[in-house]
């Protein structure tokens, strides 16, 4: 059985569009099956052999990617019966069952690796995010991701972050303005960059600016930035910025985020803490598939 520790977030994110899942899983299956299919399974198992398999977690973590696993088995053989034992976002312990698959044995084994690859990778991101989120659950701060994701898999990685109790930053260059140090250098200053961005953007587009000190921070406040990213500032400077801000802009801390630093950063009163580690440094969650022997 899955468990949810006290204080853990219980709201599950919405499902990903099935079309996105279908395209990704189909491409992965084609990559794995190649031109001749699963020659090992086809050579060793009778065509009509049936089996029951169980997906289970081999360590404690947070599950993400159930839709990908279900789709992998369904695309190989629609008649396979896939029974989910947990939902995305569920916390599991070592040995907990995740899903049961029943039907044609060849189909089960041919889809196994693709199903596990998605599950292990996305559950790894969700699990790593949950560790950060749990450390700051006593504050109002949210841990959020960045655009540092494996190309082509961003939507899935960000979904996994949500499953782990994190928050999503912008999805790409087109859905929010984030003025970084290089933009500021070319534009001629923080205020000039923000004012130019506001003149360019529609009224629904948020404007965030990165600052590296209190002087730049106050300049950003003076021209009413929506969000201010406080880059590589220690807790003392963050506390000072929070006090000066007085709730005017949303504040995001970034840089030097780790398990042993995030608690102190969150306790300064910032709204968001962004880190690329939850999508780029997360280890996979160990999940296995075993055939049940009668």
From TrEMBL:
Keyword Ligase annotated: no
Pfam family, one: QRPTase_C
UniProt GO molecular function: nicotinate-nucleotide diphosphorylase (carboxylating) activity
Transferase found in the keyword field: yes
Domain Quinolinate phosphoribosyl transferase N-terminal: from-to ranges: 38-123
EC numbers, comma separated: 2.4.2.19
A GO cellular-component term linked to this record: cytoplasm
InterPro entries: Aldolase_TIM, NadC, NadC/ModD, Nicotinate_pribotase-like_C, Quinolinate_PRibosylTase_N_sf, Quinolinate_PRibosylTrfase_C, Quinolinate_PRibosylTrfase_N
Pathway terms, separated by semicolons: Cofactor biosynthesis; NAD(+) biosynthesis; nicotinate D-ribonucleotide from quinolinate: step 1/1
Extent of the signal sequence: none
Origin: domain of life: Bacteria
GO biological process, one term: NAD+ biosynthetic process
Catalysed conversion reaction: nicotinate beta-D-ribonucleotide + CO2 + diphosphate = quinolinate + 5-phospho-alpha-D-ribose 1-diphosphate + 2 H(+)
Annotated ranges, domain Quinolinate phosphoribosyl transferase C-terminal: 125-290
Keywords noted in UniProt: Glycosyltransferase, Pyridine nucleotide biosynthesis, Transferase
NCBIfam families according to UniProt: nadC (TIGR00078)
Family statement drawn from the similarity comment of this UniProt entry: Belongs to the NadC/ModD family.
Assembly information from the UniProt record: Hexamer formed by 3 homodimers.
Protein name: Probable nicotinate-nucleotide pyrophosphorylase [carboxylating]
Organism listed in the record: Phyllobacterium zundukense
